[in-house]
Amino acid sequence: MESVDIGNIKFDEKGLVPAVVQDARSGEVLMVAYMNAESLAKTVESGETWFFSRSRQKLWHKGEESGHFQHVKRIYVDCDADTLVVEAIPEGPACHTGNRSCFYRSLAQWDNTKAEGSLTILHTLFEEIKDRRIHPQEKSYTNYLQKEGKNKIDKKIGEEASEVIIADQHE
C-alpha cells in the first residue's frame, strides 16, 4: 500500500481536513470531524483521536470529557490527500447524544428500510452482550442467559441456528 507523508496532506483554506472515523472492527462510520495539522500530529503521536472544533476554534481530544476515547489503528489518505479515514477502536459512543454513531438517523425522503444484510451486526451484537455484562438490565434475556451459564447459552444458540436454517429453506 502506498503511503502519504503528513506534510503532503492538503488542508483547506482554513487549515482543515475532514476525518471520517470508522470502527476498526466493524467498519461502521462513527463520526466525521475536522483535523488541522496540530490535531493530526497529536493523533499520530498519541494513538488517540484529536480534532479541531470549528465552533469552539480549539483542539479537542475525543474522550477528554466523556471518557469515550478512540484508539487509532489505521489512518488512510484519499487519492487527493484532502480527506482522511481514521479506523479506531472506540471506548463507548462516538456521538455526543450517547448514540454509538453520529449517523443514527435516516433521511425522511429516502427509503432506508431494505437492509441487504451485513456482518457488522455480529460486532454490534457482541458489543451489546459485553455491555449487558457490565451494565445488567432488569428483565434482560441476555442477562438471564449469562446468569444461567454456558449450557443455557449453547442451547439458545442452537435454537437460533435452527431457525436460520428453517428460514433459509422457505426463502
Looking at this protein, list some descriptive labels.
Ubiquitin-like (UB roll); 4 helices; four-stranded mixed sheet; 2 domains; 171 residues; alpha+beta; two-stranded antiparallel ribbon; 31% helix
Structure description:
This protein has 171 residues and is of the alpha+beta class. It has two domains: 6-90, Roll (Ubiquitin-like (UB roll)); 120-169, no CATH class. Helices cover 31% and strands 22% of the residues. It contains four helices and six strands; from the N terminus they run ββαββββααα. It has helices at 37-46, 120-134, 141-148, 150-169; strands at residues 17-23, 29-35, 50-53, 58-61, 70-77, 84-90. A four-stranded mixed sheet has the order 2-1-6-5, covered by helices on one side. It is elongated, with a radius of gyration of 20 Å. The model has no long low-confidence stretch (mean pLDDT 92).
From the spread of the alpha carbons, the general shape counts as elongated
Might you state the CATH topology name of the largest domain? Ubiquitin-like (UB roll)
What's the total number of strands? 6
State the major sheet. Answer: 4 strands, mixed
CATH class of the largest domain: Alpha Beta
For the largest sheet, list the strands in their spatial order: 2-1-6-5
Known CATH architecture of the largest domain: Roll
What average pLDDT do the residues reach?
Answer: 92
Q: How do the helices and strands follow one another from N- to C-terminus?
A: EEHEEEEHHH
- Beta fraction of the residues? 15-25%
The tally of domains stands at: 2
Itemize the secondary structure elements and their pairings.
Layout: E1 17-23, E2 29-35, H1 37-46, E3 50-53, E4 58-61, E5 70-77, E6 84-90, H2 120-134, H3 141-148, H4 150-169
